[in-house]
Each structure stands twice: as structure tokens, then as C-alpha cells.
Amino acid sequence: MSIQIEPISLFKSLSDNIRLSILLLLQAEEELCVCEFSEALDEIQPKISRNLALLKKVGLVVNRRQGQWIYYSINKQLPQWATQVLLETYSGNREHIAAPLAKLNKIGANKDRPMILCKGSSK
Fold first, then answer.
1. What is the CATH number of the domain that holds 17?
2. pTM for the model
3. Exposure pattern of 29-53 as b/e (b: 16+ CB <10 Å)?
4. Domain tally for the chain?
5. Residue 122 lies in a domain
6. What percent helix, strand, coil does the chain show, rounded to 5?
7. Confidence of residue 101 (pLDDT cuts 50, 70, 90)
8. Tens-digit pLDDT profile for residues 46-71
9. Structural domain includes residue 1
10. E strand map for 1-123
11. Which of 119, 90, 78 lies closest to 29 in space, CA to CA?
12. What Gene Ontology biological process does one annotation of this record name (predicted)?
């Protein structure tokens, strides 16, 4: 069963550079925590959290807690048309997140990064 999402909500979300980058990073990595977004996008944690909250309110992302970290992923309950828009946007714009992804990959594997980045993160 899919959730209801208005087209305007999706496209407004994609029109902001940080939210677009978050969604593209999630397409590439499947799941990330706030400190990973902060590091990859060189943005402060409150700004990342605010944008994640907006994406969650619209229904584009969901989160789960594991220990002290909250991980975000694209909502698997999105309607097919919304999923397709996100996939096509990612496929046609991978260069938009090439540098942030390279930055994350240089730090380590996806599963190891929160332990490296989130310890007393000052961002």
C-alpha cells in the first residue's frame, strides 16, 4: 500500500538544493544518518535536521533508531510515480552528488561512518 503525496510537495522538496542532495544521497546509499549528511554536504547538523524533518513530514523519507543514531531512508511506501521521479532524477544527476559521495567513501564503509563521524560531532 502506498502513501498519498501531492505532486507539488515532491517537486517543492526537489527544488531545494539541500533536500535534493539528501534524496539523491539516499538513492545512492539507501540509508544515512544526520552526521553523514552533514559531513557530505558540509552543512551544520541543525540545517540538515530541519530539512530531513520537512522531507519526513511530506512522507518522502522515514527514519529508524539504532542505538544513539537515527538513520534515514527513502519511504518505500511512496506511490510508483513518486518513486519513478526520484529514480529518474538520480539517474540523470549523479554528478550532483559525486563529490559528497566521494567524501563519504573516503571516510569508510557506510556501516562504519556513523561511529567515525558522529562521535562528538561539532557540526
1. 1.10.10.10
2. 0.90
3. bebbbbbbbbbbbebebeebeebbe
4. 1
5. no
6. 60, 10, 30
7. very high
8. 999 999 999 999 999 999 998 888 99
9. no
10. 32-33, 61-66, 69-74
11. 90
12. response to arsenic-containing substance
